Amino acid sequence: MNSQGKKPLLGCIADDFTGATDLANNLVRAGMRVVQTIGIPTHTDIGSAIALETADAIVVALKSRTAPIDEAVEQSLSAANWLQSLGVAQLYFKVCSTFDSTDRGNIGPVAEELAEVLQAGIVPVCPAFPETNRTVYKAHLYVGDVLLSDSSMRHHPLTPMTDSNLIHVLQRQSKGKVGHVDHAVVRGGSDTIRERLEALRTDGTRFAIVDAIANDDLMTMGRAFASMPLVVAGSGVAIGLPQNFGISPSESAAQLPRAQGPRAIVSGSCSAASNAQVVDFIKRGGEAFPVDPLRIAAGNDIVGEALHWAGSRLSESPVLFYATAAPEAVKSVQAQLGVEHAGELVERTLSAIALGLVERGVRQLIVAGGETSGACVQALEVQQMRIGPQIDPGVPWCYALSPAAGKDGLMLALKSGNFGTVDFFTKAFGMLP
């Protein structure tokens, strides 16, 4: 429970929409009642006001991961100012567990500006999330048993990650010095971590990459970060922070209203996990509509075709709309259309399909892919969501209000491309009545 009763304890800024629900999911699992806003709310309706008043944590979801640096910084600072106005005790800048970024940013530039505003002497940085096989050891990021640079993220279409040394990655983006808290220090306990961070601060270090290979490490560092004004991390560190506010796990934190109706999936992610999930859904007999970027670019009315195809298919049996494709196919399309243009075409089309589906009665919707989730949520004009039970690590069901859904609301799951078991789509709907 929020012991203060009137203001949230933790304020979070996420650089994409699926990352925001990933973070919120871990906070809920640790016992916090969480409201996720889509950007900074432009107005407050009755439902939003009640939700904010009863929330232990507020997560602001931005679409800033691949935005121009100045835009990403501006959005993040605005979110920080709004959260501070609510009285939060600590700020959490949530980045991807695979540290998705380019050599120019946006993690470093945003984190530095936030640190300046908060007057943070040193900022711990840890993208580790062992439950999803993301670990940091000797400042190197691993995906499962391989270095990040040897994983499928090496071929990411927007933020290819070819360097696993997070000190090097963050230093290229930052003006301040980047240091390291070794795993041996982490295993020494919270006091040892605090001592190491203070030594680095005294030495003029601005950021410290912190090793973590297990959940116990995250709980230990969570206690060490209790008095720090700013934490930069993936969603994993979130499991260690609620304890600092006297909060413990509780099933009531994940309780949601229910919205019943037809089911659908919209997938724009091209990650290996999403590819496997699409294949699994189709193999199980699920009906699916492919979205071809080249046909969109040629002027075909793909949205109209998709919604016409949906027609009488909308029911308790989910239908899938996907632009998910293998890396070779994605590169071929990007070569013909350009990386940014191809992405914009797909996002615009899938978000229009999602809106049309909800207008036609869909009330249980899964969206796969960070950029796709951002576009769909914006098209649906969702301003805030209540975070519910976990489907798979990093992915919860949420209850959202959307003008397209009316007073009924909408059950919504925003899945990061790399997350979820191969049967994720089937399993997710199996959790709902």
From TrEMBL:
Query: Which residues does the UniProt record annotate as the domain Four-carbon acid sugar kinase N-terminal?
Result: 10-239
Q: Does the keyword Ubl conjugation apply?
A: no
Q: Which Gene3D superfamilies match?
A: Four-carbon acid sugar kinase, nucleotide binding domain (3.40.980.20), Putative sugar-binding, N-terminal domain (3.40.50.10840)
Q: Which family does it belong to?
A: Belongs to the four-carbon acid sugar kinase family.
Q: Which UniProt keywords apply?
A: ATP-binding, Carbohydrate metabolism, Kinase, Nucleotide-binding, Plasmid, Transferase
Q: Under the GO molecular function aspect, what terms does this record hold? A: ATP binding; kinase activity
Instruction: State the protein's purpose.
Output: Catalyzes the ATP-dependent phosphorylation of 3-oxo-tetronate to 3-oxo-tetronate 4-phosphate.
Listed name of the protein: 3-oxo-tetronate kinase
Four-carbon acid sugar kinase nucleotide binding domain spans which residues?
A: 264-425
Q: Provide the leader sequence positions.
A: none
What reaction does this catalyse? 3-dehydro-D-erythronate + ATP = 3-dehydro-4-O-phospho-D-erythronate + ADP + H(+); 3-dehydro-L-erythronate + ATP = 3-dehydro-4-O-phospho-L-erythronate + ADP + H(+)
Q: Which EC numbers does the record give? A: 2.7.1.217
